[in-house]
Every structure is written in structure tokens, then in C-alpha cells.
Design brief:
Elements lengths: L2 H8 L4 H24 L2 H8 L2 H7 L1 H12 L3 H27 L2 E3 L7 E9 L2 E5 L7 H12 L3 E5 L5 H12 L8 E3 L4 H9 L4 E5 L2 H12 L5 E4 L4 E5 L5 H13 L9 E7 H16 L13 H16 L3 E3 L3 E2 L3 E2 L2 E4 L7 H4 L6 E7 L2 H9 L6 E5 L3 H8 L6 E4 L21 E2 L4 H7 L1 E9 L18 H13 L3 H21 L4
Parallel strand pairs: 3-4, 3-6, 4-5, 6-7, 8-9, 8-15, 9-14, 13-14, 15-16
Antiparallel strand pairs: 1-2, 2-18, 7-17, 10-13, 11-12
């Protein structure tokens, strides 16, 4: 079945058709992976070495595709997707060999053996990507998996398939063998079928509800999964924070991409001494966001309805809502929500995924930490303070995978050296950094003799000698000894006991 036909059929609603398409895609990806995975990591890096240049040469083409399908401003397409993708490619290609290449392991408890630690590809990987960063997120899923030796079937959001098609084209044009990267265009039913087709690993980025279904389906086999899910991310603003800097950071962090980012700021915790001034200044800056040019629209009517529901719920429970007015083109004015019961409201507890932010005061660092951590999510957070050391210490107490001091944590996703991922309902597994490459492979340890192919039989083989227990106690004491010199002497004594015992008790 040619790729074009697979793409057309993949949108069909019938489960049987989706299952057939998925099975075909996985089978072909697995067949293509055999040769690709057999290459050394350095050889795979050489095949993909031209990728940063290819992306640079197509920078305007990629940005135009993102704007056309997603609707975000061109500046955001460049700054948040294309440039970071080039940086991710450069980073992964630079560090892949030393990260995934073989390394030797020795142990003083087995001086006659030596092991090699290697990283092996999983095989055929399914990557299911969302629409909000339609180029960077799938790129960050696909590239480390390919470098690690996997083949990949990419299932993008049905709302942004052409961006994904361009992504596959550009990577494949670097010289990737045919079939190692495949595009599966379709809706959620195809994604579910791809998991049922039993790939060797699933990478999913999207909502918590869908991520739970992916994990449950994968657990039947089981298939390892990596999940990057939602967040109700917060900024913690201490009393000594710079008012102008911090309100500008929060205004952008709450509304970039129309607030449609798992790492956008949806909650703001402000010290009581700064609260009123901060709220007034933030409200002013949100009001001055150019909604015609700078604010991305809701991706579809369903997403805009969630914004409406959350704003309406805030008004109905008596909270103060500034903004949130309907605009043409699936937009609303950025909304700032506050009030005595805000920390019990929908906008505080659930992900809005829109230009809506809730704000609440706190009195002490302990209260700020408790308020922040009173959520099942844990993707990103920000801490703002003139005392960087204090802010860093407080950041270490927050339940979040990435915490930025005096910046918006979303910018950390553009830094390819930083591992990215969450805890709790925000998922697990990491993209970016060396962790992304390590997550794309499983570890194999191969142990072999250091000297002759066959040495003496092991002292702990049958029959057990009466002295074995004493020898094991001596070995345990040597291992537990904190002083290196004493420990090494202990290993020598234990080894001598074992060899003496072996000479007295022939083994089976």
C-alpha cells in the first residue's frame, strides 16, 4: 500500500480499516528498522549530519506552513519552533556518539570479568504529536528516536498534517533510508490503532485524558511509553521581585501561542505585599496585548469553547474577571481572574490552554510552596525574586519538572541541552538533552572474561562448601568498608578464602 493511499485510508472511521493501516505501517517500519538499527550510532549521525543546514535552508518554508495550519504569529513560529528545532538537531548530533556509544564497566567484586554497556534501539516507535507546536514537538520526538536506531511512525494531529508532512520530507531528504520515517495522517482512531498494532515504544504528547488511554492500551502488551501531558503551571512572585520585569514575563508567558501551550502560565502566586500593585500592572499589560497581530487564535471551536466555559465558571462563582471578551477569529481578550475563592476555581485547578490566568496572594514561602504543589500536575514553574539564591532554593521545593528563576519556564523548551518533562499527571519521560537520546534506547550489558576464556569453576556453584557463608560475610564486610585501602585489602582476603575453598571442594 503506497504512502499516499495509507494517508487517505487512515482518516476512515472504521476501526477495522484503521487497524489494517496501522498494522501495515508498523510492519513496514519494523522491516526498515533492521538495517538502520544495525548501523553504529556514528554512522547514523553521519547520515543526518546535514539536517541543521536543511532546516536553515527551509526556515521560511517551515514557518509559513506552521502559520498556515496553526494560525500563530510568524514571529512565534520562528522563535518557538524553527530556531529551537535547528538547535535540537545540532545538540543531538553533537552529543549522540558519546551518549549512546559503548562504555566499559568494571567491578572490584568481579575482577576477572569486564562488561560493556551499550544502547540498543527499541525498534519501531510510534510518535503521536499535538497541534500546538506542530513542528518542534514531533521533531523533538522523532530525531532522538532515529539517532538511537529506531524507525518512527509519526502520527501528527489531524489539525496540522501538512506541517508534519514537511517535517518528514526534510528529514528523509538528508539521506534517511526509505521507510525508516513514515507519516500516518489521521484522527485519534488511527493513533489508537497504532498502539494496538504493538509497536516497540510509544511517544505521546497531548492531553492527560488521551495520555491515560494511550498508557492503558500500551499496558496490555506491555509497551514502554513516554508521556508529555498537560499542566496548570504557575509563577511564584516573591515580594522583592521587579514589578515591571515580572509582569511583562507573566503577561507573555500566559498568552503566547494564544495560551495554547502545556507550559504556559495559568496560575500566579504573588506575595501579599506586592499583590495589588502586581495585579493592576498585569491587568494593564494584558489589556495592551495586540490581539489582532500578536495573539494566536484558538485552534478550533472546541478549544475556544473551553476558554468560554472556564471564564463563565469564574464569573458564576463570584470571581473578578478582567478581560475574557469575545473577539472575531476564535479569539478572546486575555483574561485575569482573581478573588477570595480563586484557588478553588476551575481556572486554578484545570488546564484552560488559553489566554486565561488566575492570580492569588500568599504570605510566606511555605504557603507559596503549599499552594503551588496543591495540584496533581507538575510540568513547569517560574520563581521571581531579586535574591536568586533564595529563588533557586524555593524552586527546589516545587513539584515541577522544569523551574525557571526570573524567566518564563516555556523558554527552557527552546534550550536543547535541558531535559524536558513533567511529574504526576504531567507525565514522565524526557525530551531534549541527552535524556532524550537515552530514553530512545534500552540498555544492554554484555559481560565477558578478562583473561582466559574459561577460568576456574565458581566457588558458589554446587556443592556448597561449609566455608562459603564465612567467605560471603568477609566479602560483605569488604564491600561495606568506606575506606578504600581497607576495602581493597578486604577484597583480597575474601578472594583468598574463596580460592582456598574452591581448591578443597571440587565443583559439579
Amino acid at each position: 500500500m503506497p504512502l499516499e493511499q495509507v494517508q487517505r485510508v487512515a482518516g476512515a472511521a472504521e476501526a477495522e480499516t484503521a487497524d489494517h493501516v496501522a498494522a501495515t505501517l508498523i510492519a513496514r517500519a519494523r522491516a526498515a528498522q533492521a538495517g538502520w538499527g544495525a548501523l553504529e550510532v556514528g554512522e547514523r549521525v553521519r547520515v543526518l549530519a546535514g539536517l541543521p543546514g536543511v532546516l536553515l535552508g527551509n526556515i521560511d518554508r517551515i514557518a509559513a506552513a506552521i502559520v498556515a495550519e496553526n494560525g500563530k504569529p510568524r514571529a512565534e513560529a520562528l522563535a518557538h519552533e524553527v530556531v529551537p528545532a535547528i538547535a535540537v538537531a545540532r545538540h543531538h548530533l553533537d552529543v549522540a556518539v558519546r551518549t549512546l556509544g559503548p562504555s566499559r564497566i568494571t567491578s572490584p567484586t568481579a575482577p576477572y570479568r569486564s562488561a560493556v554497556r551499550t544502547h540498543r534501539p527499541y525498534g519501531a516507535v510510534v510518535a503521536i504529536a499535538p497541534w500546538n507546536l506542530p513542528f518542534l514537538i514531533p521533531f523533538s520526538q522523532v530525531l532522538p528516536a532515529l539517532i538511537a536506531g529506531n524507525s518512527v511512525v509519526l502520527k501528527p494531529s489531524e489539525l496540522t498534517p501538512r506541517v508534519a508532512e514537511l517535517l518528514v520530507e526534510l528529514i528523509t531528504d538528508c539521506g534517511l533510508p526509505e521507510g525508516v520515517l513514515r507519516l500516518a495522517a489521521g484522527d485519534g482512531s488511527l493513533g489508537a490503532a497504532l498502539v494496538r498494532a504493538r509497536p516497540d515504544k510509544v511517544l505521546f504528547t497531548g492531553s492527560v485524558a488521551t495520555g491515560q488511554r494511550v498508557m492503558a492500551a500500551a499496558a496490555r502488551f506491555p509497551i514502554p511509553v513516554g508521556l508529555e501531558l498537560g499542566g496548570v503551571d504557575a509563577a511564584v512572585v516573591l515580594a522583592d521581585a521587579d514589578l515591571e520585569f515580572t509582569t511583562s514575563a507573566v503577561a507573555w508567558g500566559a498568552t503566547f501561542n494564544g495560551g495554547q501551550a502545556c507550559c504556559s502560565i495559568e496560575r500566579v502566586l504573588v506575595h501579599a505585599d506586592l499583590f495589588e500593585a502586581f495585579r493592576a500592572r498585569l491587568e494593564d499589560k494584558l489589556r495592551r496585548v495586540d490581539t489582532r497581530v500578536d495573539l494566536a487564535p484558538a485552534i478550533d471551536d472546541r478549544q475556544r469553547e473551553i476558554w468560554r466555559q472556564h471564564v463563565r465558571a469564574a464569573r458564576e462563582c463570584g470571581l473578578e474577571v478582567r478581560g475574557g471578551d469575545e473577539l472575531p477569529g476564535r479569539k478572546i481578550t486575555p483574561a485575569l481572574i482573581s478573588g477570595d475563592a480563586v484557588t478553588a476555581s476551575t481556572v486554578w485547578l484545570e488546564e484552560t490552554f488559553g489566554p486565561v490566568v488566575a492570580i492569588a496572594p500568599f504570605d510566606t514561602d511555605e504557603q507559596a510552596v503549599a499552594l503551588h504543589n496543591d495540584t496533581e500536575y507538575g510540568l513547569t514553574a517560574s520563581v521571581f525574586s531579586a535574591d536568586v539564591d533564595r529563588a533557586r532554593a524555593l524552586a527546589g521545593r516545587l513539584h515541577a519538572g522544569s523551574v525557571a528563576v526570573n524567566d518564563v519556564a516555556a523558554t527552557m523548551y527552546s534550550t536543547p541541552e535541558y531535559p524536558w518533562g513533567g511529574v504526576g499527571r504531567s507525565g514522565f519521560g524526557r525530551s531534549h538533552g541527552v535524556d532524550a537520546l537515552l530514553d530512545a534506547a534500552w540498555v544492554q550489558v554484555i559481560d565477558a572474561p578478562r583473561g582466559p576464556a574459561f577460568g576456574p569453576k565458581r566457588p558458589w556453584w554446587y556443592p556448597y562448601a561449609p566455608e562459603l557463608e564465612d567467605a560471603m560475610r568477609a566479602l560483605a564486610a569488604a564491600i561495606a568498608e568506606p575506606r578504600l585501602g581497607t576495602r581493597l585489602r578486604g577484597y583480597g582476603r575474601a578472594g583468598h578464602q574463596l580460592l582456598t575453598m574452591l581448591s578443597r571442594t571440587p565443583k559439579l
